[in-house]
Amino acid sequence: MKKYFQFDELGTNFKTETIAGITTFLAMAYILFVNPATLGEAGMDKGAVFTATALAAAIGTLIMGLVAKYPVVLAPGMGLNAFFTYTVVIGLGIPWETALSGVLVSGIILVLLTLTKIREKIIDAIPGNLKLAVGAGIGLFIAFVGLQSAGIVVNNDATLVGIGDLTSPTVLLAIFGLIISVILLTSGIKAGIFYGMIISVIVGMIFGLIPLPAGISGIVGEVPSLAPTFGQALANLGNIFTIDMLVVILTFMFVDFFDTAGTLVAVASQAGIMKDGKLPRAGRALVSDSSGTVVGAILGTSSTTSYVESTAGVGVGGKSGFTAVVAAGCFLLALFFSPLLSIVTAEVTAPALIIVGVLMASQLKNVEWDRFEVAVPAFFTVLMMPLTYSIATGIAVGFIFYPITMLVKGKAKEVHPIMYALAVIFILYFIFLG
Ligand SMILES: Nc1nc2[nH]cnc2c(=O)[nH]1
Question: Which segments cross the bilayer (predicted)?
């Protein structure tokens, strides 16, 4: 095993890798509760989504650890679960079953694009600044969703948004959870989000905002049935042939594509496994990521993706695929803790959304802001995602601005032909569908 995971070459060992795997798991365990809460709003069965989330995370992560041998942990992403629920199901009125078929198709296309090496070519064609901006913009979008679900940001008819009722007990509980998580993370406790949630639940129970669990059966229990969601993605494939679904599938693909590219580079650089500025075994890592999406869609969850929180485990020394294998084991164990779903409410999960926003937005530091021709498309990509409540719109606006500013700056040759093609596609998208 030591040899398979190249412990000696990487300068790591069994104990460090195990601690790293547990650390990353704890840093992202919130998704077990946040994902059912978010997809539940789309009408999906929360128990089934819980099981699908844990299994998709475990299977995707196991493939990443064993095949690509990266210390990267996967789970259903918070950018795309919000897009799935709020834009696709609630906004466009598409049934969740059909939306799951869209996730499945996006995953299959991504696997095919990777196997044919087209995916790596497109990743190379997109300027680094825009890849960073997409990741950061998704972060802002997630944080905005979190602020709303906490009741901290609310509708205002004059200004569109405003501050919520800060005397409401549930809003106060969310603010308390946010502050506690921030304090823990700032003190260097990697699982700060997770511990913050536990503390909020306890405080919520003390103040009567959250029901007490009924003994041990309120904590540990049977694995919830997958029956309500399993296979729906396959059964509804016939419903995806509409223009709306075409745009939805392209968005799922695009977002997963950029998010994964940015996250893999960020985690691999931190782990010191980049070679000559490139990802070793890039194809394997990308296929592992997309396979997670395919498996997850069949089980019953929105797109599975590589998590920025993997940096938590890498921060404590994780370097090999064994870190991922340990985290995958933790997700399997977590399957037995579904009764906790009823006590992890929106006020408890909202801080997680807001803090993941901070983690993802940190990529902004690497954007070349002093180059105006780059700053403009990067800025619009980031800003338009929360303001239009659409990740796709953010990507589209940024990608339309990029060739324009570069052309005017006399740098037309630096823009890859794929980028011109994408700009035209996005302009057509706004004309005909916007
Ligand atoms: N990269 C990434 N990390 C996450 N952590 C939680 N959600 C996400 C996501 O959608 N993408």
Answer: 12-33, 48-67, 74-94, 100-118, 130-154, 166-186, 193-220, 240-265, 320-337, 344-364, 376-402, 414-432
Q: Looking at this protein, which amino acid is placed at residue 23?
A: T
- pTM for the model stands at 0.85
Residue of 140, 193, 308 best suited for mutating to test ligand 1, as the one with most atoms within 8 Å of CB: 308
Domain that holds residue 250: 7-367
In a domain, 240, yes or no: yes
Give dist(CA 175, CA 183) in Å, integer: 12
Q: Are 81 and 302 a contacting pair, CB within 8 Å?
A: yes
pLDDT confidence of residue 433? 66
ipTM of this complex: 0.98
pLDDT tens string 31-56: 999 999 999 999 999 999 999 999 99
Question: In ligand 1, which atom is closest to the CA atom of 135?
Answer: 1
SS3 54: helix
- Encode pLDDT of 192-232 as tens digits: 998 998 999 999 999 999 998 888 888 899 999 999 999 99
Residues 345, 255 share a domain: yes
The ligand 1 atom nearest the CA atom of 79: 10
Question: Could you identify the atom of ligand 1 that is nearest to the CA of residue 81?
Answer: 10
307 CB near ligand 1 (under 6 Å)? yes
Atom 2, ligand 1: residue with shortest CA distance = 307
Q: What is the DSSP letter of 126?
A: S
Q: Is 77 in the pocket of ligand 1 (CB under 6 A)?
A: yes
**What is the chain's mean pLDDT, rounded?**
92
| pLDDT for 262 | 77
CA distance 134 to 259: 7
Give the residue ranges of the chain where pLDDT is below 50: none
Residue 31 CA: nearest ligand 1 atom is: 6
DSSP 293-343: HHHHHHHT-S-EEE-TTHHHHHHTT--SHHHHHHHHHHHHHHGGGGGGGGG
Q: How far is the CA of 212 from the centre of ligand 1 (A)?
A: 30
Q: Are residues 416 and 284 in the same domain?
A: no
Distance CA 304, CA 298 (A): 11
